[in-house]
Structure formats: structure tokens, C-alpha cells
Design brief:
seven-stranded mixed beta sheet, alpha/beta, TIM Barrel, 431 residues, 2 domains
Length: 431
Amino acid sequence: MKISSGTTLISNGQLIDGTGAPAVPDGALLIQDGRIVYVGPASGTPVLPPDAQRIDARGGTIMPGLVEAHFHATYFNIAALEDLDIKYPVEYVSLLSSVNCRLALECGYTAARSGGCLFNIDVWLKTAIENDFIPGPRLAASGREICSAGGLMDWNPEFRKIGMEGLVFIINGQDDARKAVRALVKDGVEWVKTYPTGDAASPDVNDHHTLCMTFEEMHAVVATAHNHKMKVTGHCRATQGIKNALRAGYDTIEHGTFMDDEAMDLLLARNTPVIPALQFEKASVERGPEFGLPQAVIDGHQETLDGGCESARRILKAGGRLGMGGDYGFGWNPHGDYAKELVFFVKDVGLTPLEVIKCGTKTGAEIMGRGDEFGTLEKGKLADVLVVDGDVLKDIGLLTQRSRFLAVLQGGVIKAGTLAKPFPMVVTREK
């Protein structure tokens, strides 16, 4: 991915650095060759060269680019999970996912960690983005997911004699678990996504209190993945599933919905980040009826929402880490609504805007294993920046309004926002 050359100054706005520190009322950010060389009060800005580019924040907000910590590029605003099951060919899904990547960048998300991807497409999305063939967030690829037989993502009855080749690996036992991870190794996947527990979305198969994968299967996944320098995460709602994941050595927990004191102690001792993904639950409750979700499913999402909010509050209050993002790509929770997660955590969970922004920038970058490169506005880091026309600390909802984005920068290059130029068509020829 290209970085800018020369000098750029962003000024005339409050500056939020993403560390949780108070905003600098009249801040400035100086970028040199794609990296931050000064961040602080405008009064301390170094002398600029005459050819420096200037970006006027118009009295608004200068902040780090957002990080979507649970991104499903290949979910195409589906009405049900079953719609992912070989409904479209890989070629069409690839095109849809590239559109979703561009949309994420336009929404201010300069980086994202995949939470599972059909056909391992995210591996190649990452390659295309890094080579500037398509616009999109910096990606950490996850690829096909791993689910135990009869688990949340294994909905085809045995008589059909088909698997889920594009979406998940269906495993039975430790050997299958190791085999699935090794298949992902060969394709260059960075994160292994698993399904240790059930979900309210499938109450007739296994609800969100159900433990699906065995501890032995989970441990086999982790041991194999870590041996290959890969990280592991899991869809964990049930209390015992959360504990098993933490004991097995999972690197993050998706959802972490129902946590007792023992689970909380394990989480804090390991400093494992949790990505609650609660706006999805709220949207499922509020908009589920128009998409035909049964009342039992909606009731399950309400219970999940209540439990997830309580767990999230406890985690952050106790000093744990939360990432922001999750499960966008359903009809009632579509791509482009990513920042609604941040709004939810302020208005419904009760976090402050500064706390939520830290979760959605600094912690997100840490989850990706790249906290030393981006996620905060600090000297030496890549200039991944979002410039918003307005005060996001007074109205966090501004982050849901793309029309208020003056500039979205990656490595100092303006990629989106009202100041952006059209994305160039890149054509390469073999020599």
C-alpha cells in the first residue's frame, strides 16, 4: 500500500489521539512521508516547507482511522445464515466483497480484522488492497471458519451428503481440527475463527447456552495454529465455552456474552480482548420481524443483548479490553452501518465517547497485532487518520455519517471523504 511523500498538516480541529487521553482543543497533526512526525497543540507545530499540503478540519475532529475488529467481507446483507451456503459462485462473492471493502474505507475504517470469509477470499482481498488494486481497510485475513459437526454453522442434514466447503470446515475430533488449521496455513490465513458455542440464531439446533466444540478440539486448534504463528478466535456465548476458549489459549473472544466471575477472572488474567458485537443483537430485535425472524429467535437475541451489555460493562470497568465491530452483512444489520456499534456503546451500554473511540482504534489495532504501527495518533506511526466535520465527543453519531467525513487517510494518502480524488484504475501488464 502506497504511503504519501512530502509533508501534510492537518489542523483547525480538536485532536483525539485514540489513547483515551483528553482531546487537544486546537490540535495539529503533521505527516512526513506517510508517518506522523508531530501531534499536539497547533501552537507547537514545526515550521512547514513551502510545498506542504494543508487539510483544514474546519473546527471539527482529527482522530485515528477506525478499526473494524470483526469484519465479514463476504457477507452480502443476507436474510439468513443459510443464504451463505453455496448460493452464489466464488466469482460473484469476490466482486461483492471488494465492494464491501471499499465501503468500509469510505466509512472511516482504515483497518479491519476478518471474522471469517467464504472461500478464503479475504487473503486475496488483502493482497489486492496492499497492492492498491482496490481501496479498502488494512486487512488481517481469517478465511474459512471451523465448526464442530452439528454446531451453529453445520445446518445441512446428513441425507443431503454435502458439506460447507466454501464457508466452514466441519470437524469431528482433534485430528479433524488439526487438519482444518493446516489447510488454512497453506492459504496464508492469519486468524483461525472457530465456533465453540451455539447462538440465538439457531435455537432449534443449539441455542446460545450450548457448548458445541470440545475442549480437546479447541486445544488442538490453538496448538496447531500457534505452532504456525497464527492466532485463534471463537464465537463464544455460553459461559463454559468462554472458559474453555481462555484455558485453551484463544487470542481473542468474539461476543463473550454470558460471563460469570470465574470467566471474568480468566479473561483479565490473560488480558484477552473481547469483541462483543452488540449492535447486531439490537438490530436483530428491532428489525427481525420485518425479515421474518421467529419470535423465539428474537427473544434469544434480546437475552443475548442484555447479557452482552452486562459483560461488556464489567470487562471495561475491571480493566479488560474491548474491540468494536461485528457481524455486519445481514439484511437488518447491513454493511456501511459499522459505526452504529460505537453509538450503541455510548448510548446503550454507557461508555464515554473517548472510551469507545479507544476501543475502536487502539484496541482494534492491538487485536490485529499492529498496535505499534497504527490505531493511535502518535509520533512514528502510520498516518491512518479520520477527519470529521463536527465534534464527535458531543455527538458520536457523526461517525455514522459519511457525508461529514472530510478525509480518510491511509499512510498519509487521502483515500476517501469529501476531499478525496477518484480512486485510480490500476492496470498491470506481464513483462
